[in-house]
Design goal:
The protein has about 150 residues and is an all-alpha fold. It has five helices and no strands. Helix 1 packs parallel to helix 3 and helix 4 crosses helix 5.
Length: about 150
């Protein structure tokens, strides 16, 4: 009898945990849908405000974060805030460096701006990798010289 009660209570705990996780996920998707609806209605100030809260959610999927960053970029562009638009583009590239915007639905000017920024971003990544590689090579040379002097 006690075994059945223990089994029943542990099952109840699992159900509650799953329900909590599902409700949290549902709440995030509901907020995302709200932001998307505001975006589709050109309410850019509200898009910016609600999306910034949502982007701070650690469990939010990267694909949704990318979409939010893109909606924010368009919103900032429409408001003439190019600096914040670039920050949104950087957020996208940080999540997915090979991202390409949908050219059928995005303003061609924005696509051009994004692609220029993407090229700069990828060049900086390549430069940083080259610096890391050269630093490793230099440290290996120094280490090898230390070993050869130590064995002499």
């Amino acid at each position: 009898m006690k075994l059945k009660k223990a089994k029943h209570s542990s099952m109840l705990i699992w159900v509650i945990l799953i329900a909590m996780i599902a409700s949290k996920s549902f709440a995030q998707e509901s907020k995302y849908d709200q932001v998307r609806n505001l975006y589709e209605n050109f309410e850019y100030d509200k898009v910016i405000q609600l999306s910034s809260d949502l982007l701070n959610e650690p469990q939010l999927q990267d694909s949704l974060k990318i979409n939010l960053h893109m909606m924010r970029a368009v919103s900032f562009f429409a408001k003439g805030n190019n600096e914040q638009m670039r920050n949104s583009f950087q957020g996208i590239l940080y999540l997915k460096k090979d991202f390409s915007p949908n050219t059928r639905i995005l303003n061609p000017t924005l696509v051009r701006m994004f692609n220029v920024m993407k090229l700069d971003y990828l060049q900086k990544l390549a430069d940083e990798e080259a610096k890391k590689d050269s630093a490793v090579t230099i440290s290996q040379i120094v280490y090898k010289k230390q070993i050869s002097f130590g064995s002499a």
